[in-house]
Specification:
Elements (H helix, E strand, L loop, with lengths): L1 H15 L12 E3 L23 E2 L2 E10 L2 E11 L4 E2 L4 H27 L1 E2 L4 H27 L5 H17 L7 E3 L1 E2 L1
């Protein structure tokens, strides 16, 4: 239980760390891409000695609003931070598990894009609504990440891990209409 609580705390910190405007282009950030897979070289942080976890993927969703010519858009991107991700082990199975954490982040970025694209915003409550919707989606992401770790026991239950590796790409593909990171908002 202590391990799960420790991991849940780390995930909460990871997912809440990304707020509007936090994304800065640099070599430390990997933006999710279907063709690009993580490698152990991407996990550059030092693993804490106090944890029994074997690895940690520090991923989250960046949400950046833009206004141009009276059109409001948001750029919603699943990102991975190299200097906050670490590993104590370098097995292929564990790397697949960590990749799937990043893939789940992309799945929820797509769900967030969909939520933003169908929401009818008003100028009066725009900022509050943007923030509330973001926080709600991030809570859903955090709960889903925890469910993934619980069901697979952090990749140790191979049959469950294999099922997740089959299901998540299908779920991402089902939201292929939301693959573009830029969403035009409906603001009245």
């Amino acid at each position: 239980m202590k391990i799960l609580m420790s991991f849940a705390t780390v995930i909460i910190l990871c997912l809440c760390a990304f707020k509007a405007g936090d994304l800065k282009p640099d070599d430390n950030i990997i933006t999710w891409d279907k063709e690009t897979k993580l490698t152990w070289d991407d996990f550059t942080a030092k693993a804490p000695s106090s944890t029994t976890l074997k690895a940690l993927t520090y991923s989250g969703i960046s949400m950046r609003p833009h206004t141009t010519d009276s059109v409001m858009t948001v750029n919603i991107t699943a990102i991975f931070e190299k200097d906050k991700s670490w590993t104590k082990s370098s097995t292929e199975a564990l790397l697949r598990h960590e990749q799937l954490h990043f893939d789940i982040t992309e799945l929820y970025a797509r769900k967030m894009r969909k939520a933003y694209s169908i929401k009818k915003f008003t100028k009066k409550t725009l900022k509050t609504d943007l923030t509330t919707l973001y926080k709600t989606q991030m809570q859903l992401l955090q709960a889903f990440q925890s469910k993934y770790d619980k069901e697979t026991n952090h990749s140790r239950i191979e049959a469950k891990q294999a099922q997740w590796e089959k299901d998540i790409p299908k779920a991402i593909e089902a939201l292929n209409s939301q693959k573009d990171s830029t969403v035009v908002l409906s603001v009245k």
